[in-house]
Design brief:
By secondary structure, the protein is of the alpha+beta class. It has helices spanning about 1-20, 40-60, 70-105, and strands spanning about 110-115, 120-130, 135-145, 155-165, 175-180, 190-195, 210-215. The radius of gyration is 23 Å and the shape is elongated.
Amino acid sequence: MKKNLSTILFAIVCGMLVASCGNSGGSGKKLATNEVLGDLPNLVYQHNYQDSVFKAKADEEQKGLKFDESGLKAAMEIEKKYDTKREEANTKFAADVEKLNSSLAGKAIPYEMEAGLPYEITNCKIVDLDKNGNAHYEIELKITDAKAIKPNWNNEYYVIANSLDKDGNEIEGAGVGCTFVIPKAEDGATFTGKSWIGFSKPEKYVNFAKFKFVNKK
């Protein structure tokens, strides 16, 4: 029994160590509001930072616990306390995102296109934000070169775009893509696809300006 308790406690402590080291969350400073995405990058950044603080505090409180029954009980109580704090933080975050949604839903996302694409983008806009802070967007595509459109066996055609900053530089690791269902490719035909921007590194989007649709490599 003692051996089992030690194993469980060791797993809990190690899990906290790995989590706190793997998600530092940054400094917690406020990110500037983005012209396209508003305060969304900052909300996600602050939420991630707060979560990393909870992980670090739980890790600190678990240091020095003995590998016995009392130590296991103490570790579980610490886990429970910070789980509650995370749930409260998640609820507040979801509410903050919902407030922001009213100002971002329907907002156009600026874009440009690389030469030689077999389609035109006729519309690109934010549709809504989900409770996790992802920005869902919708793209309307018009085929201009049907012969170059090659859907897969499931009639799916995938387009990709880089995210550019205000200086026109590509934001590393912030590329996006969107899948369109195209049963039959014809010049002039239009299709709509949806996807989302996930902010695993929200600080990268402070200077986000637009998408650039590019040819698939």
